[in-house]
Amino acid sequence: MKLASLRSGRDGKLVVVSRDLNRAVSAAQISPTLQSALDDWTSTEPALQALYAQLNAGECSEAFAFDPAACAAPLPRAYHWADGSAYVTHVELVRKARGAELPESFWTDPLVYMGASDAFIGPHDDIDVESEAWGIDFEAEVVVITDDVPAGSSPELARDHIRLIGLVNDVSLRNLIPAELGKQFGFYQSKPWTSFTPVLATPDELGDAWDGARLHLPLRASLNGKLIGAPDAGQDMTFDFPTLIAHCAKSRSLMAGTVIGSGTVSNVGSEQGSCCLAEVRCLEIIATGAATTPFMSFGDRVEIDMLDANGTTIFGKIDQVVTHYQPPEK
Amino acid sequence: MKLASLRSGRDGKLVVVSRDLNRAVSAAQISPTLQSALDDWTSTEPALQALYAQLNAGECSEAFAFDPAACAAPLPRAYHWADGSAYVTHVELVRKARGAELPESFWTDPLVYMGASDAFIGPHDDIDVESEAWGIDFEAEVVVITDDVPAGSSPELARDHIRLIGLVNDVSLRNLIPAELGKQFGFYQSKPWTSFTPVLATPDELGDAWDGARLHLPLRASLNGKLIGAPDAGQDMTFDFPTLIAHCAKSRSLMAGTVIGSGTVSNVGSEQGSCCLAEVRCLEIIATGAATTPFMSFGDRVEIDMLDANGTTIFGKIDQVVTHYQPPEK
Chain B: nearest CA to A256, how far in angstroms? Predict the structure, then answer.
């Protein structure tokens, strides 16, 4: 099943989207919003699946053309956004570029930060940033959405709480990161916006590509029409999603609608390219001593997508332009 | 005006509470939940204020006795919880106890971490923790709730976005903190639960004690009936609330219902005691070389309160017991 939220008020309007992303139908009679559907997933999920089957069979008279540009984030605001850094090879590369050792514990203890769950934006929304000097970058990631997860759940139990899967662009302001990490309190100003693919999909939709813990397909990230990378999201993911969820639920429960992110997808050796410019720059520094690829400028366009074995987009595309934000007069 | 959420479903049921906290009346006809009231504050606030005036005048026939034990957190789940560490004197003390210098920038650049906004619990809810070895502590703080804050707002503009004020207990697992801070990604497992006072109050409710930026009254924290501290929340707050909000909104907007915390209230010299056990222990270490006050045990009771000039509670009391949580079978 594929679900999206059309722009409407603060929480969007839930629609069921056909497998080929061509048609959609309102899910209002089942649940007005994706959050309310997740709040009561045991009863809403079968009804949504039935509507999805009708839609794919061409049996929904109220179906309409699906427009990704009309989408908000599937959860336009959520209660919890925990982003991992599960591809430790990426972290190792970043450290290597600045001549720092990777602590051995990074291979066994997941890195996770709490992100801004009230700052989720749609797949075609502008990325508003006040200053290019902040070092504007994208990060292409895989995310999962959980239902309620009891505190202290093991990875084995956590696996059964994954309800939806999608992609995000975790916008990062690279030049604000060193000072924030130096304070040890985590990212804050340096992680302003997170945008989502038009649709999220249930695990059954992904066939063999989803093994219950990792998504085994290339994640494609492009800048101004040029492919920057397409590393396989199923490779080199040191901590799989059940492990990340169990880590997040160690000392407290997670509420339905919790978004858990993989962190920038990255493969050892980066032969298929990178999912963020920071990694491209690190590779340049390691190879030549200096980074030549700049961060994003106003007007730059980032696209993030994942194709199935037939080359068809699964979640629809994130397609955003960086724009110059003017803050209010003091 | 004073507002509370009675336990009901995931988001509680909004009630208006009388100034003396004795009576309450349903606000369902204006707004079913506090979040929905904040989403549309310009129109809901006058209606809620009118109901509050009626309630205080004894003119609400549907009013009932207010029971703080029936309260959820005012926002049982919120979209954003940003907790500052605004009393830098506290941070300095903690560093001093472990023989570390305080970076000079800590006096000019606010420390803020993103907290678990889906893990808000009620004033009388148990503090469920799996292990005493995690070092269970309370932190008494002042919080404000904002409406929508545009990105890049100055402190002057941010001041006008403060809609509600209350107190929280930011439960901290001290023995999990060093490893998490060492990873630089901020607190996660070490900050499991945040509980709130029964009511939040609008700024006008606080008279001269609220100057638009700081709350000038002692914040009282007790453990098992013994006062641990009552430092003045208006003193030694290096970064006031408008400054914290502007810091949080530097690179993106904040959504209505954002909770901004002061961090543990602390006064220079700690003559009025402390608002967390970690500070008590740091003072012991500085004085004698070793901490003798233990962290909390199962069965321990923490109370947090703030009294007005007449000795009457303003927000009602946080009154919680630490309980031994049993995780699900693996």
Answer: 9
pLDDT in tens, B149-208: 999 999 999 999 999 999 999 999 999 999 998 888 889 999 999 999 999 999 999 999
Q: Note whether residue B155 is domain-resident.
A: yes
Interface ipTM: 0.97
- Letter string b/e over residues B17-56, b meaning 16 or more CB atoms within 10 A of that residue's CB: bbbebebbbbbeebbbbbbbbbbebeebbeebeebbeebb
* B312 inside 8 A of chain A by CB: no
B172–chain A Cβ distance below 8 A for any pair: no
pLDDT band with cut points at 50, 70 and 90 for residue A187: very high
Closest CA to B177 of B239, B113, B236, B118: B113
Domain containing residue B98: 75-324
Q: How far from chain centre, in Å, is Cα A167?
A: 4
| CA-wise closest residue to B1 among B168, B196, B164 | B164
What band does A224 get if pLDDT is binned at 50, 70 and 90? Answer: very high
CA of residue B206 relative to chain centroid, distance? 16
CA dist B253 and B246 (Å) reads: 10
Structural domain count of chain A: 2
A44, A69, A94 — which closes off a domain? A69
CA–CA min distance A106, chain B (Å): 8
Q: How far is CA B80 from CA A173, A252, B113, B246, in A?
A: 20, 17, 11, 15
* ∠ Cα B251 B257 B262 (to 5°): 75
Q: Radius of gyration over alpha carbons of chain B, in Å?
A: 19
pLDDT band at residue A304 using 50, 70 and 90 as cut-offs: very high
CB contact under 8 A, B112 and A185: yes
In a domain, A330, yes or no: no
Q: Whole-prediction pTM value?
A: 0.98
Residue B112 has a pLDDT of 95
